[in-house]
Protein backbone atom coordinates (compact mmCIF):
# COMPACT_ATOMS: atom_id res chain seq x y z
CA UNK A 1 0.00 0.00 0.00
CA UNK A 2 1.57 3.35 -1.01
CA UNK A 3 2.07 6.00 1.68
CA UNK A 4 -0.68 8.61 2.05
CA UNK A 5 -0.25 11.95 0.33
CA UNK A 6 -0.26 15.14 2.38
CA UNK A 7 -3.83 15.80 1.28
CA UNK A 8 -4.83 12.27 2.24
CA UNK A 9 -3.25 12.63 5.69
CA UNK A 10 -4.99 15.98 6.18
CA UNK A 11 -8.36 14.52 5.17
CA UNK A 12 -7.85 11.59 7.54
CA UNK A 13 -7.22 14.04 10.40
CA UNK A 14 -10.20 16.19 9.39
CA UNK A 15 -12.49 13.17 9.34
CA UNK A 16 -12.08 12.90 13.12
CA UNK A 17 -12.62 16.54 14.12
CA UNK A 18 -12.17 20.09 12.90
CA UNK A 19 -8.55 21.29 12.68
CA UNK A 20 -7.30 24.80 12.01
CA UNK A 21 -4.82 25.35 9.22
CA UNK A 22 -2.06 26.05 11.77
CA UNK A 23 -2.75 22.74 13.55
CA UNK A 24 -2.62 20.81 10.28
CA UNK A 25 0.63 22.51 9.29
CA UNK A 26 2.19 21.55 12.61
CA UNK A 27 0.99 17.93 12.43
CA UNK A 28 1.89 17.33 8.77
CA UNK A 29 5.16 19.26 8.56
CA UNK A 30 7.28 16.14 9.09
CA UNK A 31 5.63 14.44 6.06
CA UNK A 32 6.40 17.28 3.63
CA UNK A 33 8.91 16.08 1.04
CA UNK A 34 9.08 19.12 -1.23
CA UNK A 35 9.17 22.64 0.26
CA UNK A 36 5.84 24.34 -0.35
CA UNK A 37 3.86 21.17 -1.10
CA UNK A 38 2.12 21.23 2.28
CA UNK A 39 0.99 24.83 1.77
CA UNK A 40 -0.37 23.95 -1.68
CA UNK A 41 -2.27 20.93 -0.33
CA UNK A 42 -3.75 22.97 2.54
CA UNK A 43 -4.64 25.83 0.16
CA UNK A 44 -6.54 23.36 -1.99
CA UNK A 45 -8.40 21.87 0.98
CA UNK A 46 -9.23 25.33 2.30
CA UNK A 47 -10.54 26.50 -1.08
CA UNK A 48 -12.82 23.44 -1.21
CA UNK A 49 -14.16 24.13 2.30
CA UNK A 50 -12.53 21.20 4.12
CA UNK A 51 -10.62 23.57 6.41
CA UNK A 52 -12.73 26.26 8.05
CA UNK A 53 -11.50 28.48 10.88
CA UNK A 54 -15.11 29.38 11.73
CA UNK A 55 -16.08 25.71 12.13
CA UNK A 56 -13.05 25.11 14.36
CA UNK A 57 -14.06 28.08 16.51
CA UNK A 58 -17.68 26.95 16.77
CA UNK A 59 -16.65 23.37 17.50
CA UNK A 60 -14.37 24.32 20.39
CA UNK A 61 -16.91 26.72 21.88
CA UNK A 62 -19.69 24.16 21.59
CA UNK A 63 -17.64 21.33 23.13
CA UNK A 64 -16.00 23.28 25.92
CA UNK A 65 -18.42 26.04 26.99
CA UNK A 66 -20.39 23.82 29.37
CA UNK A 67 -17.23 22.94 31.33
CA UNK A 68 -14.83 25.88 31.01
CA UNK A 69 -14.74 29.62 31.51
CA UNK A 70 -14.10 32.22 28.84
CA UNK A 71 -10.39 32.70 29.62
CA UNK A 72 -9.64 28.98 29.33
CA UNK A 73 -11.54 28.75 26.05
CA UNK A 74 -9.73 31.87 24.75
CA UNK A 75 -6.40 30.19 25.55
CA UNK A 76 -7.46 27.03 23.69
CA UNK A 77 -8.61 29.01 20.65
CA UNK A 78 -5.35 31.00 20.55
CA UNK A 79 -3.34 27.76 20.72
CA UNK A 80 -5.14 26.59 17.57
CA UNK A 81 -3.82 29.61 15.67
CA UNK A 82 -7.19 31.21 14.99
CA UNK A 83 -7.61 34.88 14.07
CA UNK A 84 -7.46 37.11 17.18
CA UNK A 85 -10.56 39.09 16.11
CA UNK A 86 -12.66 35.92 15.80
CA UNK A 87 -11.39 34.66 19.16
CA UNK A 88 -12.19 37.98 20.83
CA UNK A 89 -15.70 37.98 19.40
CA UNK A 90 -16.37 34.40 20.57
CA UNK A 91 -15.03 35.18 24.05
CA UNK A 92 -17.24 38.27 24.31
CA UNK A 93 -20.27 36.12 23.54
CA UNK A 94 -19.18 33.57 26.16
CA UNK A 95 -18.81 36.23 28.84
CA UNK A 96 -22.55 36.94 28.58
CA UNK A 97 -23.33 33.45 29.91
CA UNK A 98 -20.31 33.07 32.19
CA UNK A 99 -22.21 33.29 35.49
CA UNK A 100 -24.82 30.68 34.52
CA UNK A 101 -22.18 28.30 33.18
CA UNK A 102 -20.03 28.72 36.30
CA UNK A 103 -23.03 28.01 38.54
CA UNK A 104 -23.77 24.81 36.63
CA UNK A 105 -20.14 23.60 36.80
CA UNK A 106 -20.07 24.42 40.53
CA UNK A 107 -23.42 22.69 41.15
CA UNK A 108 -22.27 19.47 39.45
CA UNK A 109 -19.13 19.32 41.59
CA UNK A 110 -20.22 20.66 44.98
CA UNK A 111 -24.03 20.99 45.14
CA UNK A 112 -23.97 23.09 48.33
CA UNK A 113 -22.02 26.09 49.64
CA UNK A 114 -18.92 25.49 51.75
CA UNK A 115 -19.30 26.11 55.46
CA UNK A 116 -15.73 27.18 56.22
CA UNK A 117 -13.10 29.39 54.53
CA UNK A 118 -10.99 26.38 53.50
CA UNK A 119 -13.96 24.85 51.69
CA UNK A 120 -14.75 28.14 49.95
CA UNK A 121 -11.11 28.45 48.87
CA UNK A 122 -11.23 24.91 47.44
CA UNK A 123 -14.37 25.74 45.47
CA UNK A 124 -12.83 28.98 44.22
CA UNK A 125 -9.65 27.21 43.08
CA UNK A 126 -11.76 24.62 41.28
CA UNK A 127 -13.61 27.30 39.28
CA UNK A 128 -10.43 29.32 38.66
CA UNK A 129 -8.70 26.25 37.21
CA UNK A 130 -11.52 25.99 34.71
CA UNK A 131 -10.98 29.55 33.52
CA UNK A 132 -13.82 31.45 35.15
CA UNK A 133 -13.20 35.08 36.13
CA UNK A 134 -12.64 36.25 39.69
CA UNK A 135 -15.86 38.24 39.99
CA UNK A 136 -17.89 35.33 38.65
CA UNK A 137 -16.19 32.91 41.05
CA UNK A 138 -16.91 35.11 44.06
CA UNK A 139 -20.57 35.43 43.08
CA UNK A 140 -21.01 31.69 42.57
CA UNK A 141 -19.26 30.63 45.78
CA UNK A 142 -21.03 33.33 47.81
CA UNK A 143 -24.36 32.17 46.39
CA UNK A 144 -25.41 35.48 44.79
CA UNK A 145 -28.49 34.82 42.70
CA UNK A 146 -29.01 38.33 41.32
Question: How would you describe what is shown here?
Answer:
The protein has 146 residues and is mainly α. It folds into 3 domains: 1-51, Arc Repressor Mutant, subunit A (Orthogonal Bundle); 52-96, no CATH class; 98-142, Winged helix-like DNA-binding domain superfamily/Winged helix DNA-binding domain (Arc Repressor Mutant, subunit A, Orthogonal Bundle), CATH 1.10.10. Helix content is 67%, strand content 0%. It contains 9 helices and no strands. It has helices at residues 6-16, 21-28, 37-47, 53-64, 70-79, 84-95, 98-109, 117-129, 134-142. The longest helix has 13 residues, at 117-129. It is elongated and about 65 Å long. It starts with 5 loop residues before the first helix and ends with a helix.
Order of helices and strands: HHHHHHHHH
The end-to-end distance, rounded to whole angstroms, is 63 Å
CATH architecture of the largest domain: Orthogonal Bundle
CATH class of the largest domain: Mainly Alpha
| Tally of domains | 3
Low-confidence regions: none
Mean pLDDT: 91
Question: What's the overall geometry?
Answer: elongated
Helix share of residues?
55-70%
Beta-strand portion reads under 5%
Q: Supply the helix-strand structural class.
A: mainly alpha
What is the CATH T-level topology of the largest domain? Arc Repressor Mutant, subunit A
- Would you identify the CATH H-level superfamily of the largest domain? Winged helix-like DNA-binding domain superfamily/Winged helix DNA-binding domain
Largest sheet entry: none
Number of helices: 9
How many beta-strand segments? 0
Rg calculated over all Cα atoms: 20 Å
Amino acid sequence: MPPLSLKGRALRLLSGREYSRAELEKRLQSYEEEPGSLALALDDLQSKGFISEQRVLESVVHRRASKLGASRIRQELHSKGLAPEAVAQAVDQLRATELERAKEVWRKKFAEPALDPAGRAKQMRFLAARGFGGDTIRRVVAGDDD
